[in-house]
Amino acid sequence: DTSLVWFRRDLRVFDHAALHHALKSSKAVFCVFVFDTEILQPLLDAGLSADRRVEFIHASIVELDLELRKFGGGLIVRHGVAADIIPALVQQLGATAVFSNHDYEPQARQRDDSVANKLAAAGCAWRSFKDQVIFECDEILTLASRPFSVFTPYKNAWMRRLAAADGPFFLKPYPIEKYAENLAPPISATDDNIPSLRQLGFEKTNLRTLKITPGMRGAASLLEDFLLRIGQYEEARNFPAIKGPSYLSIHLRFGTISIRTLARTAYQMLHQGTAASGAATWLSELIWRDFYFMILYHHPHVAQHAFKPDYDAIQWESGAHAQLLFQAWCDGRTGYPLVDAAMLQLNQSGYMHNRLRMVAASFLIKDLGIDWRWGERYFAAHLNDFDLAANNGGWQWAASSGCDAQPYFRIFNPITQSEKFDEDGKFIRRYLPQLAALGNKHIHAPWLAPAQDLQNAGIRLGENYPLPLVQHDDARKLTLQRYAVVKKIA
Ligand code: FAD
Q1: What is the predicted ipTM?
Q2: Does 385 appear as a known binding residue?
């Protein structure tokens, strides 16, 4: 019997649930990846033909094909509407089952349901597996069998589940070597060719200059490098100027490394007492990831609305004034150096440090009074690691509208955040060279610097660096008024 494995956000050969199950149960296993025009065309229509994620996927696909070939298989690569291509390919191959991994995003779930229905009508089975998280959907529930909506008790239950007798099962890799002989090479000469980026309508980006290596190879080398530093993670991860985090998010997004590999590594270190505090903190971040996937699964309305419905009543800034504020934030022209440097990091590299995501998001919402959904969309368009679940969770956290959010009256002060987490202005100077000569004392709020200091540093506020868009103290008061509507409802 013949089956087809449909690769999506799981671009690897090793420890791949769907591939493992397909190889175990079929004698001829074909593999396919579809460059889905439903996803890519809107980018092209918006003139966004240089997208780091598309280039990353493309290069990862080339690597995936090569790796599959080493085992006697290969990747069929198509370009078109995936929901049509998969059923057509099934017919062409005479496949009796399609294997894939669960996707939890609302649109992907709709697409998968529609494909599964088409396949069922043609007598082909749809088999889908948990792969991108350790625990999914209903696997971690409260004592009352309800989904959690607060992180800490969820995390405790998650850790307890792993410590249970069958816990190790959840971290076990899915081997393929034993069954690899069941891999089938692509059938026709046309399927032997992977379309070039240009043929897909896209251009090369600065991915290479940024030293982002796609594919399993890139993921493995980042992990190797991070494990040397994991002992310092707990402390170092908060400071954007230093190499603290793993930078693995883009690889987790596209599945060029498995979450089990990462969680198992951290869990073992925690238990063996090697770099235990760093490993524990990092594992906790991986649990946040599971948590937000679970939230999105149970509450798909968060993709458009506040998790807490009362918060949809907040009146955000609107009209031309709001557009102006928003554009200045996007361009890194707010006059608050840490916020601006953060936005420039995003615009130039597609990455933004976690601390800065919190600061920049809070600034947009609580200093500029802009609807968090605008910022969420901007991050979605620009983050290399954009993931609906984590991005939405992060934005709703910052807006205080989500589960486990900051209370609305706790408002980040962009100046003290800057003084605390970029004390000597190293990160700011990296992205805002025009401020480089200003001393550490004033680099966090240049408009408060004495005129002489500004002059000596060659800074002309309003000319080569903007004046602040708002005064934080005033903005804070306005935000408290804006959020009062929620307090009234509550
Ligand atoms: P590390 O510190 O090495 O963490 C390891 C992994 O844990 C990350 O790769 C990620 O998969 C996961 N992780 C870490 N923090 C979180 C978190 N708070 N929530 C969920 N998972 C987490 N992360 C994304 O992967 N995609 C997004 O689109 C995204 N948008 C965000 C938007 C906002 C407003 C905020 C505040 C956070 C967002 N995050 C997002 C979470 C976090 O900022 C990134 O995962 C992290 O910065 C990625 O860098 P890293 O891989 O070096 O992280």
Answers
A1: 0.99
A2: yes
